[in-house]
């Protein structure tokens, strides 16, 4: 929530509208300034176009687009409200796909979520980014290749390529998490004392949030697979299966990390108990040996006038013998109890 | 339970019956005094009307309404008994929807539940509130707009709008919970000592009760989506999907808070163990160093007549050396064990 | 198990066979002595009858009934064996429903389970009680009402009314449990020392047993709803939905209590740890302050002939200053560690 | 695994082949020596036969049988390999059912598992036992009864009777477990110190293994119920439902025991914590009272030449007053903290 | 990940391409050097062939094969990327099966995962190994047998045999895990102090990873069973059921080990608590007895000039009586509290 508002506070750049018009023999790139420019592309049924909008701040623009393509008002709401769950929604002449992108520069604590909305019809693909990101750069390159499948296969394949690019980013996130867990694993296994429990707690929270962002992808893809919408072609199903497998793989990986973290927390508690046991044993051994001895020494420090032992010549050496015998007996007792 | 009875004790106001008669070109508001006034509206098939009843105390009134609209006796029972689970029930010429509203002024501990029953037929929508609440104010405004969809689309859409208004309230509750959890999170992470465990326990109970109130919404909406009742139009399905997504989002959010609370409780226990370990180490270090020294001092406090060391000139300084050596040895031992 | 045998040991009263013959215009009550009296009722297709058998001890009687109505031997076994799970079983011309009644006089520990078997055909309803109980009293009254639905609707509706009466009893049990949990909740939250853990453990066991008795009701009702048996009428489905909702409500309530008990047990453990921490801190603070002081006092209690400090005039007051300084330093140290 | 090999080491008795040939009017018993004797029975379509083979050691014999009845090689493998999961497999003219028998002489730790394979066709039932057991004795008696259903109903009913006999044994096992859990329950509730945790751990393992042996029965019976194989008659479905109910009942019973054991383990841990708290309090109270007193006594045991208090006449009684005051203050402090 | 790269670093051997051409009356073995040699085999529809490729390093080779057999690019990706989940994918004229092989020389910590990809069409089976392994040796032998089913049944049966060989390896792994868990079980039950918690933690992680590799096999086989692809013959379904049972058996075994490990960890914690309790009791008993005695001795070590007891003749023996009485009283107190 705070993230979103923060973004809103930042400089509200005019969104960039990149349009790529393409066919099997055709490829063109335009920077759209006015939405009127879009109309001729919409009417040309022999070519497809991809329009990438780099920001969702300009509600006016989005409303205009929605009128042009007769987009459902709830879809507009979904596009502009960045707290949506990933989902797929079918309409008569287009399909709406909403997914979450995850990215991070360096560490687990800086993981950012960004909502990507994709809308595809017979001859167009629209993608809305929350902020201008370079995630689709690679796709632009592939599109320029006249022999590439993106030029030939339908707009559902094009959408698959976009979603696949987003899912590929998840693997980086997963590796980041995996490395972090591995680090704590090492620290705890080596019984290091500088383990920061708070950070672990924080990372577990992050893990849960990431899972919540990826989990609905399963249902999304599942619906996609079962869809009988004319825009979704049977022959492209293999590609959808592919991103399904990737999503499951990532979720299983996250689950594995989660279980490892739980298991680490448990191990840490056990280590604490073992350490405490050791501390207690030390205290008990020392106390149990010396407290009785001190008592005996205390007895002969009393100032009674009549204390026969005090006068006996061998009292002192005999007492030392008693001290040593008691100590030896105690040590043997503790040894048998395996407290050493 | 106690809540309900409490309400019953309170002043039993005469329920307010607001009737809104509307069509694409028509909008009228009435305050119904006598149910006889309702009949003409029931017979006009070209107009729809919405009747909002602000209280369910007046059983007589509800019985009369049920006769007018031939409502099933079990539905009457559901409307008047406020401990029902959310549900949808289909009848020949109307559909009954029962949902739970949650609202709170300030804090998690003041969250109130209120049951809202909605009954819609071809040309009417009836809504029953437990107590007069202003939750539908915004809807009244939207209804006055002659171009609004509420005037055009069917009574199932109208019901969607009512349910949507109720679900929107859940988000406020969720934010309240989220803030509270965040507060405890901070307190525990900063190792503050004033964490009130009892309040946390109480909040976990509240969380479970809220979840129990929202959870059945999933099944309700799922049945709605699959319904083949003529009153439920295919084309309005997108709206139902929308509240389904919202419900899932809220349930996932609650689950996240629940997990965070569990994880916090675990962290708190671990912190307690760490603190206890530290306390124990302090005790052990001090005891282990000074108990043997005290014993030695005790020996030379004994009053035996024959104790050669007592007479030796350098006994006292030598003993100090021994004291210091023992202490240094102990400190080194503890340092190696990382007890410092 | 032991319960059953206990009952068998008790006085084996002759079972009471109450027969209620009824039609829309007809109501008669008989006490059947000889099963031969039953035959005319069986043959009258224009009237229905309800036969309530108040005991299942008389196997002879049950065998005779089973012959009269050609009941499956496994059903006879189910009726007489009181350790069955709730279930519904369909046969060609009758349906067998087995449910569990729960009742308790005062406390959770006295909850009793009783098996109620119901068998209904086109024009008869048979109910078998384990012991004579007054649970169906209210139904007898309703049956006498000539306008009541029980006289008009089919034998499946009659069975619904019987099952509904049994399920209504569950709510009482649930309230009993809820009160008990509330009591422990208060005791533990107020940190009272007289919390009886054994009773809590015992109640958790009871809760599990109750849940096991109610849980199969879900499947039973689910089968009932999906049944296409001619004896089960579509139009009575609303009533079945009603008891389904009640069952789910009770199961959710039990689950809530179970979770609260778990959460209480956890809270109790945490409270124990907090208390132990406090005890440990007290011990450590006192020991850590006085053990070193005692050592110093011990030193100057030694009897060496050469100890310069002993002769120095200001030794004693200086030592007091040292004592006080050490104590102040320790207190400051513990204060910084927040052990006070 | 080790169990199996152990058996193999033991004396490999020649398997006993009991053949019971029966029809509605016919009953004969043979001890088969040579498999050739089996052929005439196979050909007589008016009679059925049950062949019980008391051992699976003689692979030669089993291969010959499999040839005679054209059994699938994988079935032969299943029969001879005793680590299979319970299952049902349908073939063109016979059905293969594999179940696990559990039996124990006295205690939970001696529970034995034995695999029973049953193969039934139109006019034959084959049963393979791992070792000669008397589990089917009762069935032999029922078979001799010319009016019994086993003589009339099909081979699927016969198989039901065999499986039912095996499941009935489970109830004995369950009672054994229930008694054992009850014993530990008593021991722990009464806070006895001789609770053997290792045995409890061992029993939990046994419980898990038993559950794993019974759990697949659910799927087996579920497949049986849904089967459309001509050998499985609709009218015998009631019997299958019966063993399904029994299996579920046993699994629920095991689950209850498992939960009780978990809850007991938790209770035991809490009791340990309570005891430790009590021990700690005793230590702390004694130490906190006497350590400061000992320090004061130590002070006046010092041998400084200038210690004014030593010469004062009332020092000693005043000190006693101080001792008593400190003790009273401490006791009051601990009382207020509820450490007594 | 690291594992894969490690392998890549190692010597990149030229992959071995073993081709086995076979029919009911025919068997030939070739070592393919050039893929051109493959073409005649592809065209002979009366014979089948199995091509085993011992390495996936040579991407060039795999691309050529894919062209020859028109394999989908995503399949090529799956074959060469060794971090895939087990899966089955159907294409028009071939089916792709990807499974994970697990093997280990000696210990749980050396368990290796290897990806095996199998592609089968009407008359060919292709298998890709990550590294040259001898896992299929036994299959080569069976293939030489002219009466073997592998020569007669379809390529789906051949694939079953390959997958079965891989699953058989799982049993070895499972036994390895079972032995390891058994070892820890013994160590902990015998309360040995050298239990290595870190290794247990590590093994739990390994267990989870193994489970993740085997778990998707269930879905794979489930899809295989439900498949209606012409290459998959109904009559071979029994074999698929067989590997399904094996997979479930292994997963249940792993789950059992996992539960045992959890239970062991819990037992270990309880043992630690018991030990700590014992240590605490020892300390408390010794301290509680001797601290008050030492205090008394300290009193009579004070040097007050006026202490009447000091001069009394019987003070010393009387004090000894007091010492003994206090000790006896304490011992009795502790005995009653069962601290001995």
TrEMBL record, chains A, B, C, D, E:
Primary localisation category: membrane
NCBIfam families: corA
Catalytic activity, reaction form: Mg(2+)(in) = Mg(2+)(out)
One annotated Gene Ontology cellular component of this protein: plasma membrane
Superkingdom of origin organism: Bacteria
Protein location: Cell membrane; Membrane
PANTHER family per record: CORA FAMILY METAL ION TRANSPORTER (EUROFUNG)
CDD domains: TmCorA-like_1
One MF annotation (Gene Ontology) recorded for this entry: cobalt ion binding
Name the UniProt record assigns to this protein: Magnesium transport protein CorA
Described function: Mediates influx of magnesium ions. Alternates between open and closed states. Activated by low cytoplasmic Mg(2+) levels. Inactive when cytoplasmic Mg(2+) levels are high.
SUPFAM superfamilies xref list: CorA soluble domain-like (SSF143865), Magnesium transport protein CorA, transmembrane region (SSF144083)
This protein's encoding gene: corA
Residue ranges crossing the lipid bilayer per the database entry: 283-302, 314-334
Signal peptide stretch: none
Pfam families registered for this protein in UniProt: CorA
